[in-house]
Amino acid sequence: HTVLLVQVENESGSLGSVRDFSPAAEKLFQSQVPGDLVQALHRHTGTWKEVFGADADEAFAAYAVAHYINQIAVAGKAEFPLPLYVNNWLKYKPDAIPGVNYPSGGPTYNMLDVWKATAPAIDMIGPDIYTDDSDAYRETLKQFHRADNPTWVPETGMDESFGKLFFYALGEGAIGFSPFGIDYTGWTIQDEKPPAQHAENYALIGPMDREIARLNFEGKLKTAVEEEGAAQSSLDFGKWQATVAFGFPQFDGGQKAPGTKDHHGRALVAQLSADEFLVTGTDARIKFQPASKENAHMQILRAEEGRYDNRNWKFLRLWNGDETDFGLNFTHQGKVVRVKLGTY
């Protein structure tokens, strides 16, 4: 059996109290903050209150929880060095109270530095995101996408409104995206039918997941997601720009994109070489044009529909004429196209 990752603890921290107030804990709280933590955070030495101020209680709890979990991780890796991660119950609002609105001491965005310094045996920390508000979702992805922490969504909503958010995660370099309760246990899914948009996403990306991962790692992949009142967006690839318009019909490309009724349109464009791109999406038209008008006019030299098989591109058919004249159109058929561009 293949084990990719191990979750060491689930949504760690404490509810009901911001920290441990026992005599032993209180003695430590009044003492100096451990030197290795102070050094890692580039702070001046002092007590927890002197170093962390208003966040002292939560930082003290985060250090204790992270230190304990790191000990478990170290012991586990000594037996078999698999990648290890922890997830967290989010601090959704800046004024949320630790221990009341979310578990205190967990690896929330405001405690990431403490966790990273204290639990080096944990390879990554992922947010459990249960809001389908696009702005909040994107902000959370950015908070956890750091040079020392790859983007990874260990839990997220299963409803259809979360389907398009997978493309935001891909655009932020995510290496994983896991809707919660996807199993056919009768608890979350009653009819053994998977959520349509999540299933559609995985059917589209799954066969080429290794290529998508590589292109994302190399910084060559971008995504576009439809939002209410924003049925069109642009992706910048240096000399080339891709315009993504959501919803159909669009006919000759001269009219405004109509969008979709529930704003579910999504698209992915990845640069394979200077003038070649991998393109796919759902209810989206993608049209390329030179970024500078000095580069004359764009011409599609070749548009291949195909699929990846064991990391090898398998050509299926050429797109021509009406299929390419006004852009590349993607509905719900799971099509993938490699397009070669030129100018004249």
How does the overall form come out from the CA principal axes? elongated
Write the CATH homologous superfamily of the largest domain: putative beta-Galactosidase from caulobacter crescentus
Mean of pLDDT: 95
CATH architecture of the largest domain: Sandwich
Beta-strand residue fraction: 25-35%
User: How many individual helices?
Assistant: 9
What does this structure look like?
- This protein is α/β, with parallel strands linked by helices.
- The chain has 2 domains: 1-121, no CATH class; 221-343, Chondroitinase Ac, Chain A, domain 3 (Sandwich), CATH 2.60.220.
- The protein has 9 helices and 15 strands.
- Strand 7 (232-237) and strand 8 (240-246) form a beta hairpin.
- It is elongated.
- It starts with 5 loop residues before the first strand and ends with a strand.
Summarize the structure.
The protein has nine helices and 15 strands. It has 344 residues and is α/β, with parallel strands linked by helices. Strands 6-9-10-15-12-13 form a six-stranded antiparallel beta sheet.
Write the layout of secondary structure elements.
Blueprint: E1 6-7, H1 23-29, H2 35-41, H3 48-52, H4 56-79, E2 84-89, H5 112-118, E3 124-129, H6 134-144, E4 153-156, H7 165-171, E5 177-179, H8 196-205, H9 209-217, E6 221-225, E7 232-237, E8 240-246, E9 266-273, E10 276-282, E11 284-290, E12 298-309, E13 312-318, E14 328-330, E15 336-343
Parallel strand pairs: 1-2, 2-3, 3-4, 4-5
Antiparallel strand pairs: 6-9, 7-8, 8-11, 9-10, 10-15, 11-14, 12-13, 12-15
Helix pairs in contact: 2-5
